[in-house]
Amino acid sequence: MIAQGRFYKDLHQELVVQQILPTIYDGDDFPGYDKVKLSYQQLATIIHRGKRDWIAALENQKAVYLITDKSNGKLYVGLATSMSKMLLTRWSNYVANGHGGNKELVALVEEKGFDYVKENFQYTILENYNGKVDDKLVLQRESYWKEALQSRQFGYNSN
Predict the structure, then answer these.
(1) How far is CA 43 from the centre of its chain?
(2) Banded model confidence at residue 17, pLDDT cuts 50, 70, 90
(3) Which residue in 98, 75, 80, 79 sits closest to 153, CA to CA?
(4) Sequence-distant (≥ 6) Cβ neighbours of residue 89 within 8 angstroms
(5) Considering only CA atoms, which of 157, 155, 159, 158 is closest in space to residue 72?
(6) Which of 91, 82, 99 is nearest to 139 (CA)?
(7) Which Pfam families match (predicted)?
């Protein structure tokens, strides 16, 4: 142990700074809609720092998305349409308050607190659509996913 301590003590004198990054690392670039899987912290970073590639990708998209509670496996299937001002606005609501106004998620945040969401929620895109697609189709697809994933019976969907 003493020899190791001396090694580390002397090592700092030999370290050389190779590069100082011009900007603070703020997460990965947008990977494509089929690869979006974000923790609450990752989503908050994207929104708060205004990551241009992510903002451009999400702001005009309609979508069916999934929120997974990693602590218990419960799911919430949601949708973003022109009525909810598209996916970026919808997900920004979750970053702001943890529940986005959804009945079951409001109750969860009231019971367990906002930090619970920050520690346990993951956000995924199941299907995405451009802004020209009829909202009715997105609503039908949301209903399909709620049935397929049984998020009404075993998750956080109440409707």
Answers:
(1) 4
(2) confident
(3) 75
(4) 59, 80
(5) 155
(6) 82
(7) GIY-YIG (PF01541)
Rounded Cα distance, 130 and 158, in Å: 27
pLDDT at 51: 95
- Structural domains in the chain, CATH included, are 28-153 (3.40.1440.10)
Q: pTM of the prediction?
A: 0.84
DSSP state of 33: G
Alpha helices in 18-158 (DSSP H): 40-48, 52-58, 86-97, 103-112, 114-120, 135-149, 151-154
- The phi, psi pair for 63, rounded to 5°, reads -165, 160
Taking a C-beta distance cutoff of 8 angstroms, is the pair 101, 107 a contact? no
Higher pLDDT, 116 or 3: 116
Residue type, position 118, single letter: K
